[in-house]
Amino acid sequence: MVSYISTISAASAVATSWCAVRSLWLAVFVAASFSAAGVVAAAGGASPHHPSTAEHGSGTHAVEVETGVWMEYSSASSIFRDLGGLQPRAASSWALRPATTTTHQFDGGTVDYSTADAVLSGNANMAIPRRGFNVAGVKNNGSGWQNEGPGRVEGSGLKLRKSLVDVLVVMFATAARHSLKEHFDSSARTFQSLAGLRQLRRELKGITYKALRGRAWDLAPSGAIGVVLRFGGLGARNGKGQHELLVVTASLVGHNVVTACSAEERCLGEGGCSMHAPMVDALEKVRRAMGVRMDDLFLVLQAPLKTGRLEAGRGVLYGEKTCVVRNGNSSWPFSAVRCTRGGSWVCLSCRTGDGTCGHAGAAVAAAKANLEGLEDSTESDVDKEVDDEERLLAEAGLSAAGAAGDQVATGAVELPPHLPGATEPLLPVNRFKWSPRSAAPRHLVPPLVAQKERADLMRALRDPSRLVRYAAGALCPYCLVGREATTPIEYKKGSVEFEDGVVPATVETWRCHQCLFRVLPDGKSRGVIFHSCYTVYSEAFLFEVAVNLARNGSSVHSASYLREAFTELHTGSKYPLASKRMRTVKILRSAVLLYLALVIKGLPYDTVSCATCRRADGSYAIVSFDGLQLGYRVKYKISFNRTDIKVHAVSRASLVPCMITDEAVSKAIGLVLSVKKEVVATKSSKAITTVTAMRGHVMALALLLGNVVVDGVDKSFAGDKPHMDGRSGERGWDPMVDGGASPQLVAFLRGVFDVRTAARSIALTIEAAAAELRRRVPVALMRRVHALAVELPPHPAIPPPASVVAGGGDGSSSRDATLQAGDEKRGRKRALHAVDRASGSTSSSLSEFSSGSDVCSSEDDDGFDLPRPIPKPAEEVWERDAPLLAYAEALEEPALATTGGAMGAARLLSLSLPLLPHIPSTAASALKVMEFVRAVVVDPVFVWAPQGCWVAIDEVVAVLRSERFSVPALASVLGLPLVAEQRLLRGAVACLGPGLAVDPNLRVLLADVLSALKGRVAEYNKWVGDTDSAAVLDGQALDSLRNNMAAAHPLHTFSHKEYTDAWLLPPASVAAYRSVYSEYTDQWDDYLRTGVWAPGLRVLRPMPGFSGAATANTDLPSCRHEMGKENSHTGGTVGVFCSCAHPKCIGVMVLTGSESQRMPLEFVAQRFVKMPLTTVYDFACATLKSALVRLPYLARLVALRCDRLHWRENHTDCSAAMSPDSFVSLDGVNTSSCEERNALSRRQQHHLRQMKQDQFITFTVYQQVLANAVAMHRDNKTLGESCKWPEWYRRTHVDVSQADRV
């Protein structure tokens, strides 16, 4: 057992060595040696016999587990009594063990440990570290580091808190020096004080003005002696809770200096102000340097103060992100407000309401005033002028109290720059506080004088001795009077900015003696824009910035930033003497908007119209509309002032002019007739989810197949009342009674087409519906649906016409017989060719070249091989044997000229509504007929009468009903321009030509359907209570009706007939409209107030304000089309464009809500002298529906068409009659012009979405005008090729006289 004990002791020694940080390899070696010895002893070594249980020392026991095998163990508590289960603490070495470490001997080994209390309390001594370790860097018992680290190297910049007294000395010394130079005479005492201040400033030359820029300001602009200190760049307080922005004031009370600051402390209380000592120290140093008493120093410092700014709540800007607001004579005389990175103003005094308090509001107002040029923290003299307002009012004969009253009474408002100036003198109200700025319109491209002025500014920037001066304006823009001899000219120190920098300038101004308005030079003759009397911009520079924004999509902020960056790069070498700083981005943004407004106001007529498309009266024959889903934030939306007349809708008026008045029925049939979708008899179409759709599909099935037979009797399941008269509860299942289907259309479908495929497709759709919906269908009708779904029924036996059996018929001419004979001959030839191909063309081809199998391999008598015969190439056989080729040539219809080959045959078999077998057709001709039928089924009948002209329908009906019908007669009618204009009508009639020639019944069916189209128009006129030709009211009745409509309540609605009689039928003119509505917003076309910009199309009528939302009974759209919706942003704008190759924008409508299909009707009715022939809109099918229920006059007169792009993509419920490709007159018309122009506007969406309403409208209009100029340049054929568009525009529209000399 001794060996086992040795093994355990060795293990303990290993643990002790490891805990004592001994060498690991030594420990492993010792453990391995003792373990090996123990193993040898256990294998066969002799050992004395022990009892079964023995105790060795305290807590040690030996247990005999087997015979001769003992195990010795010790408990943990007996070994580590004081540690309580914690691991022992490490020791550095055997010789240098700390005194607090206890050593326990165990079985020949030792274990070092420390008590848990000593370790946790930090009293246990640390182990001695190895040589070279820095003890100072060790943490001191968990209470921190013994010594401070070196920290980062401190910068060489100004430490405002450490150099606070020196900074205050520099600020007060500088303020005193400026005051002595500007407000005191040149006496010896003054020179002595200036010399002392100069010496003091030299002593503190380490405090530079460059270091103080943006960190310290004199408080004189706020009307007090003190300073504004900005200790840190960001945040309100630092890590120690100290203010990063502080306003400190000083005043002299008796002989004591009293200080107060903007911190929370009570400066006038017992504790006093924390800034008192440094302020008094700095003032004392300045006083000693000047050699004066303290009261004299305060007298000097008070001289330049603007006491008018001591009113409570007045905010003054210091820099761009700091504002000081006056509170009053208290312990907190001022409050500091800072501007965050996001542009919000946060007050440092009002902790709980730092963004909503009055101080933050005053800061916002001050920033706005500075943005508008009303106030400048360094150069403005507004307060001085406010003191003179009473004197000027007295001189002008106006009282201060009555001036405001007169201003309100006369409705005097400060007009925006985009409106024209006064042509007659206005009343002399008090315009003292109105903002003077440039008001004359500007050209779209700056003239040469603007370029010359920019060159002069560059010279002045290079040579500061060159002075820039702008002479005062000649007349007051409101009173239209000149300057009186007694009125002095005031000289303002302004600055002119352009792309290269800033040039100081002198601006002459004077006050109008009647209204006190400050008269500025407008700057048009010099090529500059006056944002205020202190800020002037080069017109050429603003033009380049505006064009960059509109064409490249960069924001004003990025353009301003790049301008400053480029100026920093080249100013030092290009203009080394320049020292003037640029203004902020906000002022530049305001100046750009002013420039855009002046440009829009001065646009020539050619820029806002299209010389190619406009008619003599200024209107357009074809006009295109499109919505741009790019709006501004809803929170910026302001209500527009639009003069409109509420017009209510005629319920269900859009259903009456349809051949099937129930939309569910027409949609069910139109779905299986759609050429955009695959319709076969083995699968269902769109799923049914409503009871209305189920009823529509069941009635559509009955329309195709007729009534069901119940017990040998036809049963229609008709309701009690017709569709348009009855209610939903009284409706049945008959397609003509309850679905409103035209009997002529039903007869045409059943007598011309094989309806089995379409019927089974509808039946499968019904079967796929939910059981709850199928349960509502009568049992007899559902039984037929089940039968159709299981098996396709045979086609009903329809005897062929007699003309087909006998080879001729009534009304057929010899020419028709010749066409039929030619078709029969081609048919026989085609059959023979088919037989030849079936018998084997390979053998016949071989026999053509050889007479035996060994001819090619035999030899002649001379031993020469015979050459192999060269096969002749097969002849290219054109399909001249098409069965309907003769009809194709006669009727000029390509669809009849070819069968389409194998693909055509497959397509003919897959048609959902093929023609009956006795009607000759091809795959292409059958498709044309099906498109025609779909248009008749789903669209209103007005699509067949463009501009209300039914001549084409009348001519076709006349030839079909003619007793001497012939193919040549039909061809002559189809060749008429009005008939050929409608490709759907002409193509369908021509494709039915072979059948019309042999089947008189087909002619009757087609003529009845076309006549029924006009019949629906008569029913529609009766429904809406109108006629095609309404009489125009006489003068007295017309004036009475117009005045009644103008004087009515804004919510009162009128009928469409009243609006049509009052405004659409009589001749339209601007004078007639202004005689009723004399508001200046309409007369001047104020696009910011009305939200409509169209200077080339003046307001002629009040806008029809359509009341009521779109419903199923009014103008709810059928097709699905995504339009601009108002959510977080407004719906955007609707652009009005011409349709030439280079389209121009002729109008912009800003959406007040979501986009609506009614907007094209509103714009056309308001501004067109003569209604357009065609209006193109991507949702024209819905616009036609709105016109039918709200303005029937426009529905008859204006043809509404979809553009080609959207028609091919997402119009599935309307027919090809809405496509521009269905009309010859629209060939070559750019129907996607609006899409082209709106694609350019998408580049500006990242900053347009952030603008407010007025800025959004202004920039949107300017962008469209700029694109108009580019389009005009592309239209030009002479100068357009030799120069770019800006120079071309300048020569042709700006400097015209110089262009003539060229």
Automatic annotation (TrEMBL):
Cleavable signal peptide: none
Membrane-spanning segments: 25-46
Protein name per the record: HMG domain-containing protein
Spans annotated as Disordered: 793-868
Keywords: Membrane, Transmembrane, Transmembrane helix
UniProt organism field: Porphyra umbilicalis
Comp. bias intervals (Pro residues): 793-802
Record flagged with keyword Transmembrane: yes
Domain of life: Eukaryota
Biased composition (Low complexity): 839-853
